[in-house]
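S., here's the first fold you wanted:
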Amino acid sequence: MGWTAQDIPDQSGRTAVVTGANSGLGYVTARELARKGARVVLACRDETRGRGAVERLRGEVPGVRVELGLLDLGDLASVREFAAGLPYDRLDLLVNNAGVMALPYGTTADGFERQFGTNHLGHFALTGLLLPALLATSGARIVTVSSLMHVLANIDLRDLDGERHYRRWTAYARSKTANLLFTHELCRRLAAHGSDAVAAAAHPGYAATNLQTAGPRAEGRRGAERMMELGNRIFAQPAEAGALPTLYAATAPGVRPDSFWGPSFAMWRGSPAPSGRAPWARNDEAARRLWDASARLTGVSYAALEA
């Protein structure tokens, strides 16, 4: 039998932030960290759903230390407000989990294409703003959730917003490639700084969450929504299993910088195992150029790594 949530080491005394923690993979990740003793901040966009998740979690695991933080990754002002309001000088774990998938073209509050803006730029800004608290904590980890779908497309540094020709699945794949390039470059910079913080990435394989149905539902495409629901029932593993690679990357001893974790069986389902990635997701030059563009677009400089 492979690694399960029961194998998560004791998390007592640790503080974690999990984005998109009101449902799906984020909720399971937050619950299992809290179950093992961590203080967990559920970073959620919707206050009502976030409060519901907090109450649900407290009902499932009495005595846990959980709290709600409001965070809209599609609004850089919200990201800055969340980071400024976090009342902890030390942070052991940041799980960049939240995301959107295959949405019709639209823009964030700051004018970025929604998938790139939310999945990558929002988390880039959040990580940079929380970096001082992470660097102040020995052995801190930053886990960013990518997707096996990143293999469908490399980023286009000339058209990060997809303005020339937008295709929803290509845009999603590019945003997930951006997650991996971000992790790759972050590891390089942490090492150059002499930090023992570990940045790693994970993906859930095919896990049944509301991510698949959100796009069709937003457009009123009921047929496509039903197809996604059917696929979730027949082919997907439950969110409890899909969250395991993230939990492994976040807590297991010996996780190496820039490692990528996913399900063991055909990278689709099963217990956590090292996952393959497209060769472009390790490209040093692309990672540096994406980093520079992201810093310019978000206004977040990662000054803590420059000192």
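And the second, which I think is the more interesting of the pair:
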Amino acid sequence: MSEQRARPVPKPGVLDIEAYVPGKSRAPDGVKLHKLSSNETPFGASPSVQAALSEVAAHLELYPDGQANALRQAIAEVHGLNPANILCGNGSDELLGLLAQGFLQAGDEAVHTEHGFLVYDIYIRAAGATPVVAKERDERAEVDAILAAVTPRTKIVFLANPNNPTGTYLPADEVRRLHAGLPSHVLLVLDAAYAEYVRRNDYAAGVELVSENENVVMTRTFSKIHGLASLRIGWMYAPEAVVDALDRIRGPFNLNAMAIAAGAAAIRDRAHVDKTVRHNDEWLERLTNELTALGLRVTPSVGNFVLVHFPEGAGRTAADADAFLTERGFILRRVTGYGFPNALRLTIGSSEANRGVLAALAEFLAR
């Protein structure tokens, strides 16, 4: 009888993590694809990005700037910030992971809301800490529930604002109330990936709160409104002490040269951003109204997507709708992992895609 050979074993907790599963992106052969599952912009990247990429392409043998200075300076100029308080990452996902890695360890806890971004749970567990879930009300984060979840072991509170996949948000005064209720050693992480889409007077992405405090950070992304999802660019505005800590543990060249150049060009093209926002404003209202008129419940959203809830009856569920839409080339996002087994998240796409999915859903419900 041969002796069983030992093999490397991950540290405790790693194999308990549910791997993140992206939205599907394929339609049946011969059917035109309308991918409305990943909250991508229908307008793509700014035209100025192509020129920036061409310049970098001539020198691919060179290492990128390890500090991403050109990108940090562009972000600082557009948002009126100090570059010393900005850290860039391989998508805001990397920055969220670095925050967990840098500030959590075994025995610690971190709080996120019931329907918050799935990567929070992943990064908390990967750091060896324990995730604590705060209940939401009407698919919206509740400050009192978050504060009630805080214990002496809490080190981080993650808040997506606006939240994905619900599209709901907390007004600025509620975020300030949340911060005021946290101990000073607890880090409040405001994930503002969809901030550019919000057109509410009571909303704030978090810049002022970060500027005024030592325990608040704000993360942002170029994957959504700037149309650079494939290049993986994120940034964080944070106290210098937090930037310094994460600078010590990030990869030395965590942003490639094309990402740095493309991000700097994209964030300066405000006309492109404004065009995208106008399209989103028009279709967010229209999709919400027309889906509601079809008899579907839609969670009020301020992002570039809507969460659509389906009836429970056989043949009318979210799974049924998903299969029906996929056969016609409309790919939406199943959100069972977020706690919504009978809902689909619909990204606001091109006018053609939006009209098409409305017509397809009307056909589905009329069967």
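Why I say that: The first helix runs from residue 47 to 57. The longest strand covers residues 340-347.

Talk tomorrow,
H.
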